[in-house]
Design a protein that fits this description.
The complex is a heterodimer of chains A (about 270) and B (about 425). Chain A is an alpha/beta fold. Chain A has two domains: about 150 residues, Rossmann fold; about 100 residues, no CATH class. In chain A, about 40% of the residues lie in helices and about 10% in strands. Chain A has a five-stranded parallel beta sheet. In chain A, helix 3 links the parallel strand 3 and strand 4. In chain A, helix 11 runs antiparallel to helix 12. The longest helix of chain A has 15 residues. Chain A is globular. The relative contact order of chain A is 0.12. In chain B, strands 1-2-3 form a three-stranded antiparallel beta sheet, with helices on one face. Chain B is of the alpha+beta class. The two termini of chain B are about 30 Å apart. The chains are: A alpha/beta (about 270), B alpha+beta (about 425).
């Protein structure tokens, strides 16, 4: 990975530039940057925070060295906007479940959006939206993704630091199970019989949920090569109702391919 | 004939979420004011249908990354009413410190990094740090303490995972909470310093006849519970909220505003309303600061909201110190068990930005059949536009850039959380035709 500070998008010798863009989202992943309370001023010293509407009024023109993208694509206008942003950013990173997998907004992908509009909005004619919520990578090439709902501030700081010094960010791709072992949490799936997504979910949160006596519900999305369907079958064998399992895999990362396939397969079996 | 001018702020900055302001004036007359939200529509109320009761706090948290606890608390209380269960006094206290954590992180961020720069003449907290590093660092440290409180109670600061209908999945360990005490005590002193700093800012003289609305509780400053009261004397149980407030279409282009019935007038929720209506319920240090800071309460100037926010940070630290100090043992019961059954319940709590109302119906299958969520910013929107109509004539003497900057500062008085758009986004207008 080349050092981002050696050659800037702007071609100048000044600091590398960072831009933060928002699509359909809750602001939580951008907030993670401001949540780096101890590092924020140091980061601002090393990097030109060129475009970050939620934090500063001054907005510099692109191109930018690093673009952080929060949120999913849910309108035609946003589908256009992300293409322009891609052109403006040398290194484009999706931050969080919405940008990486369509997020909670992707729950609409199994429903009739027209019906939703009727349910929620008084004057449906004013509403402009696509039928689906999709990940950024469905629209443009993405250079790196940070998982999570929300992302982990430490991973974001690691990403920025790595780009500055020119090495690959150290972001683990093992499962949440490993994090439980590392923090010494007794397995809730084995010891308490809780249907937990930890075995098939990518690490990154620090395995918080099992340490609070509850199931992992998949905030960081499917781990590479995870067999989600097989895990769900195992839970079903020991008595977990199928509709509960469908809801478990179909939430913040429900449209990530491995979770989507598992949820759809479970649902098909119950209808077929 | 007067001079025609237009101001347009294409993207409001230092607010949460994305919105746009459009003002058209003719001479000294404001012809048109429009605060548009171009956040894409999000369908949370629809997503909740058919989900399990226990999923509601996890799903509603995702409405807003900056005030997830407000959504979780209103959802839990409303669903507990629907299930006809009551939490223990111990759980009630733990919820109160959780809410303190959210008020601290949200208010500290807004005051020091987003709003103070307006008063001190900077475009951001980042630029401001060059000249006022100690102020920005104090704000960041306070924010971090709020986040740590959220992490101990909720598992993490953004989208806490430990909140559930009936209580908490696990009570915080005594040692974990007690370890926060020194920083909480530092935070209390730091918050007092911030109140004194912001109370000395130069406030535009902009008094408005606000109808302030907030919860009020007999014995405590309102967070999780209270009656809905207003400055003109409204005093109702939360159950009566929907018969006293309504969301309405004003016109095709100005979208929905929450109004207070029967006069259909706009109203103000948030820190200024709470301090105005609940001064007597503030804990001692916060009350002392409120009374000595130089602002006369009740205040009708929403530029004082930054002072009210500061007083509330003092109150939140003070409450957290008190409750953590009493946390001698972990409660035996961290959550009250329930079996999902049909029912309906509503509840309001006080988000950092103001009153937040939820109503749920649980169906015969024990799943959520229907949800209504009214966030604070949708309630304030009518008031923001009313303020702009009055405020714009006072800034016409300035060039467009300066006039626009002042209008943005005024909007920031509300700390508008545009991301919190659930059906606030009824306001979204199809802009393709423009």
């Amino acid at each position: 990975m080349s050092k981002i500070s050696e050659q800037h998008a702007t071609g100048s010798t000044s600091k590398p530039t960072l831009a933060v863009f928002k699509f359909a989202s809750c602001y939580g992943c951008q907030l993670s940057l401001l949540d780096a309370e101890d590092e924020l001023l140091a980061i601002a010293h090393q990097i030109e925070i060129a475009y970050f509407l939620e934090a500063r009024t001054r907005a510099l023109e692109g191109p930018y060295d690093i673009g952080l993208v929060e949120g999913s694509i849910t309108t035609e206008h946003d589908a256009e906007r992300i293409r322009e942003i891609r052109r403006q950013c040398r290194f484009l990173v999706t931050i969080g479940a919405c940008a990486t997998a369509g997020g909670i907004q992707a729950l609409r992908n199994w429903s009739d959006v027209g019906e939703f509009i009727q349910q929620v909005y008084a004057t449906p004619g004013y509403i402009s939206t696509l039928a689906t919520s999709t990940a950024i990578t469905d629209h443009v090439p993405v250079d790196f993704e940070l998982r999570g709902c929300p992302i982990n501030t430490a991973q974001l700081v690691e990403l920025i630091t790595s780009l500055l010094i020119g090495r690959t960010p150290r972001v683990p791709n093992y499962s949440v199970c490993i994090e439980c072992k590392l923090r010494g949490t007794v397995c809730v799936a084995v010891a308490q019989g809780i249907s937990c997504l930890g075995p098939v979910t990518q690490a990154g949160c620090g395995a918080i949920c099992p340490s609070f006596n509850r199931e992992c519900f998949g905030c960081y999305g499917p781990q590479e090569l995870a067999n989600v369907t097989s895990l769900c079958e195992r839970y079903e064998e020991r008595g977990e109702p199928r509709d509960h399992l469908v809801r478990l895999v179909r939430n913040f990362n429900g449209y990530a391919p491995a979770f989507r396939a598992a949820g759809d397969a479970l649902e098909e079996e119950s209808h077929g | 004939m007067g001079e025609k001018r237009q101001f347009e702020v294409k993207a409001l900055t230092r607010v949460e979420g994305e919105g746009r302001l459009y003002v058209r004036v003719n001479g000294m007359t404001v012809e048109h004011v429009e605060l548009n939200i171009y956040e894409p529509p999000r369908f949370f109320e629809s997503f909740l249908r058919g989900r399990e009761v226990r999923e509601a706090p996890d799903i509603t948290a995702r409405i807003c990354g900056i005030c997830p606890v407000a959504y979780q608390m209103s959802a839990c209380h409303a669903l507990e009413k629907a299930l006809r269960i009551t939490v223990t006094p111990e759980i009630r206290l733990l919820r109160r410190i959780l809410y303190c954590g959210e008020w601290i992180e949200s208010h500290a961020l807004h005051m020091h990094l987003l709003h103070a720069p307006d008063f001190l003449g900077y475009e951001s907290g980042i630029t401001m740090a060059a000249d006022h590093r100690e102020v920005v660092e104090r704000g960041l440290r306070m924010k971090k303490i709020g986040n740590n409180l959220l992490a101990v109670l909720g598992g993490r600061a953004i989208h806490p995972i430990n909140v559930t209908v009936g209580g908490f999945y696990r009570a915080p360990r005594r040692g974990e909470l007690k370890a926060l005490l020194p920083e909480l005590e530092w935070g209390l002193a730091a918050a007092v310093e911030t109140v004194r700093l912001v109370a000395g800012f130069d406030f535009p003289a902009f008094e408005q006849p606000y109808e302030c609305v907030s919860l009020r509780h007999e014995n405590e400053y309102p967070m999780n519970e209270g009656r809905v009261v207003s400055s003109s004397g409204l005093d109702i149980a939360v159950d009566e909220y929907e018969s006293n407030f309504e969301e309405r279409h004003i016109s095709h282009s100005t979208a929905l505003h929450s109004v207070m019935l029967p006069e259909s007038k706009p109203y103000l929720v948030g820190p200024l309303s709470r301090v105005n209506l609940c001064l007597e319920q503030l804990p001692p240090t916060a009350r002392r600061e409120a009374e000595t800071c130089g602002v006369a309460w009740p205040s009708r100037n929403n530029f004082h909201s930054i002072v009210a926010r500061g007083i509330e940070v003092v109150a939140a630290f003070e409450e957290a110190v008190r409750i953590v100090g009493q946390y001698h043992a972990e409660p035996v019961v961290s959550r009250v068990e329930y079996t999902p059954r049909p029912g309906e319940g509503c509840h309001a709590t006080e988000a950092p930005r103001g009153l937040i109302y939820h109503r749920y119906r649980i169906g015969d299958d024990g799943l959520i059949a229907d949800a209504t969520i009214i966030p604070p910013t949708s309630q304030n929107q009518g008031q923001i536009e009313d303020d702009l109509r009055q405020f714009v004539p006072t800034v016409l003497q300035y060039d467009d850039a300066e006039a626009t900057r002042r209008c943005e500062q005024m909007i920031r008085n509300y700390d508008p959380c545009i991301s919190c758009s659930t059906h606030f986004l009824k306001l979204t207008i199809d802009r393709k035709g423009e």
